[in-house]
């Protein structure tokens, strides 16, 4: 069943992307590999949203597991027709794909907001922990000379921009793959049903 093989391929790709999202989100909690900023609650509000762990991670692992299992789905089918059972399984994979779309969409939105808002850091001008780039609406991304305003954690702007960008890209790819599986699941389900009706 070519639709099942396609679903399995999508599933394995989603599995890798979800694991990468989890790792990237965990790294956001430890700027420069230091744990003290997390323990002192000096992390940005979008870092703590778990968008890579929960959204791009666990909510994408669910459809990944479903899609990987579709290829080996040897259910008995309905009314004794195996194709019908497989088509039902393909159609049910559409629901799992919607879960993946919700998770990856959450990851995309929070990553975009994190990039736009900028990091939470200690600045030499204010002598306090603030969000120095909120007014720029993401314009700070191209004003590298202003990045030095953040003194602590060191290189926090580069750290946040890199990891939020990675999560944004990973979430975008996950979203596209889940959307492809929605189309694949609908086509596979409908084709399976047509084949089983023809056999009758």
Give your account of this protein's structure:
One of its GO terms (cellular component) is membrane. This is Transmembrane 4 L6 family member 1. It is found in: Membrane. The chain has 200 residues and is mainly α. It has one domain. The protein is built from five helices and three strands. It has helices at residues 2-28, 36-39, 51-70, 82-117, 156-199, and strands at 121-123, 128-130, 150-152. It has a three-stranded antiparallel beta sheet, with no helix packed on it. The longest helix is centred in the C-terminal third of the chain and has 44 residues, at 156-199.
**How much is the average pLDDT?**
85
Say how many strands there are.
Answer: 3
Shape verdict: elongated
Radius of gyration: 22 Å
Order of helices and strands: HHHHEEEH
Which strand order does the major sheet show? 2-1-3
Number of helices: 5
Head-to-tail CA distance between termini: 19 Å
Query: Can you tell me the number of structural domains?
Result: 1
Main sheet summary: 3 strands, antiparallel
The chain-level structural class is: mainly alpha
What is the strand content?
A: under 5%
Helix residue percentage: 55-70%
Keywords: Membrane, Transmembrane, Transmembrane helix
Family: Belongs to the L6 tetraspanin family.
Main location: membrane
Transmembrane segments: 12-30, 50-70, 91-115, 161-180
């Amino acid at each position: 069943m070519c639709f099942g093989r396609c679903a399995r391929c999508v599933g394995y790709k989603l599995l890798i992307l979800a694991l990468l999202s989890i790792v990237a989100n965990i790294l956001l909690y430890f700027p420069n590999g230091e744990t003290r900023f997390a323990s002192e609650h000096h992390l940005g509000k979008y870092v703590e949203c778990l968008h890579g762990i929960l959204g791009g991670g666990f909510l994408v692992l669910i459809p990944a597991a479903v899609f990987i299992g579709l290829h080996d789905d040897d259910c008995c089918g309905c009314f004794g027709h195996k194709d019908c059972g497989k088509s039902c399984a393909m159609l049910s994979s559409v629901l799992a794909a919607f879960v993946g779309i919700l998770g990856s969409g959450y990851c995309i939105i929070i990553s975009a907001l994190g990039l736009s808002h900028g990091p939470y850091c200690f600045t030499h001008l204010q002598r306090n922990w603030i969000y120095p780039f909120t007014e720029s609406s993401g314009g700070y991304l191209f004003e590298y000379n202003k990045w030095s305003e953040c003194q602590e954690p060191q290189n926090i702007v580069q750290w946040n921009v890199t990891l939020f960008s990675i999560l944004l890209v990973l979430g975008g790819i996950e979203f596209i793959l889940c959307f492809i599986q929605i189309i694949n699941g609908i086509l596979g389900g409908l084709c399976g049903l047509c084949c089983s009706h023809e056999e009758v």
